[in-house]
Amino acid sequence: MVNLAVEIGPLKLKNPVMTASGTFGYGEEYAEFVDLNRLGAIVVKGLSLTPREGNPTPRIVETPAGMLNAIGLQNIGVRAFIKEKLPFLRQFDTPVIANFFGDTIDEYVQAAEELSAADGVRALEMNISCPNKQAGWIVFGTDPKTMDQVVGAVRNVTKLPLIVKLSPNVTDIGCMAKVAEDSGADAVSVMNTITGMVIDIRRRKPVLANATGGLSGPAIRPIAVRMVWEVYKAVKIPIIGMGGIMTAHDAIEFMIAGARAVAVGTANFIMPTATTDICDGIEAFLKEERISDINDLIGSLTTSKK
Amino acid sequence: MSRSFSATILHNDYQSSLFKRLVVKPSSTVILPKPGQFYMLQTGDSFDPLLKRPFSIFSYEENTLHFLYRIRGKGTHSLSKLKEGTDIQLIGPLGNSYPAPEGDFIAVAGGIGIASLFPLLQKFEKRAHLCYGARNKAELVMVDEARKAAKELFIATDDGSAGGKGFVTEYLKHCLDSFPGAPVYACGPTPMLHIVAKKVRDRGIPCYVSLEEHMACGIGACLGCVVKTTAGQKRVCKEGPVFAAEEIIW
């Protein structure tokens, strides 16, 4: 028997494999493919206080070993989620982590309050990669001062484990992780998508209606692994590693770099059973390596470079 | 029976220089597809192309699934190179299907849109007045098979290299006048579907269009394939791909 259980601050997971927000719907979309009881946690599609329409199409374009998306955070809103989606998710023995966002600090705070009061939400994941309308479209996740304000404000209104999902579109992600930690985050997710663009050369126009989108998939994985490693050196709080994880091998790389748990994203689109396949693969690896506790793997990287 | 399964390629043959027909045998019992439904197909053995691609079911015979595709982009180029005996992953059948017509019906196919309508033509044999259009003769495929399955066939090409010269929707007008009350089923490029919807709009007859949109997952999660409808945004992969034409905000 190997121990696969990990702890993200006060949140106990039976295994380290979670879903990445926006790639697993509200869970029900995958219920016919995956035994949801077998997941470490389900992170649902990003929620805002009120429903969002999202961007016009095309919203998706494939890139070499990756994809760009500009869905535009389409979602049914916090209240509809609690009323219509959460009862289904409560049936499973798997913690539900609500990913949420806002355009203003007040919207973040109010969404956090309502989600915290809902029966069945076990942790919150803050998406801080959206523009701050109050501060003139500075992105919350790229400016340390605004990030400190918004994380601090949410920390004050929730007792749930608070995860901050970091943007990779910054100069020093270790510094941003430290800001999140100092502002009261219990954990950080590393990383969100990388902003990218694809151009239709005949029409001289961007392929995506939104012009730019977030790059995900195996193309970004080495960047994500590097960022997990940098954050691991910068903070003491647990890290959830994500970015192009397709196989157990990829997930294990993240854990060796310092991730306490991993989230599978784009792989769900390609192989609906990716999450449980990866979990099985991690267990098989531990047995092969004669490691009895997965926690012994976390941050086990040895390098001559500090 | 899982809708996520693997299958072995039995044939992947050229129908013409532009079109291929893929025949796969699932390794397990699968759910039977209905006309208008689609599958997500793995098109290569690497991460490039990364995403599965949606293909309408062309026919289902003796435990084999048939897909007709035009070699156009990265995914179909990659798919066209797969050899017999190769195992690929599929998800399906996905989406809704064409509602069954009660009597004779009108079908409008643009280009490879014929693939989606073909199971309907076959299931309701000799009941379709089929208007089939393409840019030119080379862009037409399965014409003999379509003629056999349909009650009558009108062909139109932009350059007149086969059938009548002009848009396929010109034949639609003729069919609408000749067969009042017959429901319309259409699959093809969005501009064509829009013209079909406009021509049928004031006649008070059912008109079903099968839409295409970029999608990553095919199962309702990625929200890449939404379309605006009179009842809000809907997902082409889940609430579609078949929609009542009057429901679409074009």
Please characterize this protein's 3D structure:
The complex is a heterodimer of chains A (306) and B (250). Chain A has eight helices and 18 strands. Chain A has 306 residues and is of the alpha/beta class. In chain A, the strands form five sheets. Chain A has an eight-stranded parallel sheet. A four-stranded antiparallel sheet of chain A has the order 5-6-16-13, with no helix packed on it. A two-stranded antiparallel ribbon of chain A has the order 1-2. By secondary structure, chain B is of the alpha/beta class. Chain B has helices at residues 74-80, 114-123, 143-149, 169-178, 190-201; strands at residues 4-14, 19-26, 38-41, 53-56, 59-61, 64-70, 87-94, 105-110, 128-134, 152-157, 164-165, 184-187, 207-210, 226-229, 232-235, 242-244. In chain B, helix 3 (143-149) links the parallel strand 9 (128-134) and strand 10. In chain B, helix 4 runs parallel beside helix 5. The radius of gyration of chain B is 17 Å and the shape is globular. The mean pLDDT of chain B is 96. The chains are: A alpha/beta (306), B alpha/beta (250). Chain A binds chain B through residues 22-25, 29-30, 32-33, 45, 53-54, 57-62, 64-67, 69, 71, 74, 217-218, 246, 266, 268-273, and chain B through 2-4, 47-52, 74-75, 89, 91, 213-217, 219-227, 233.
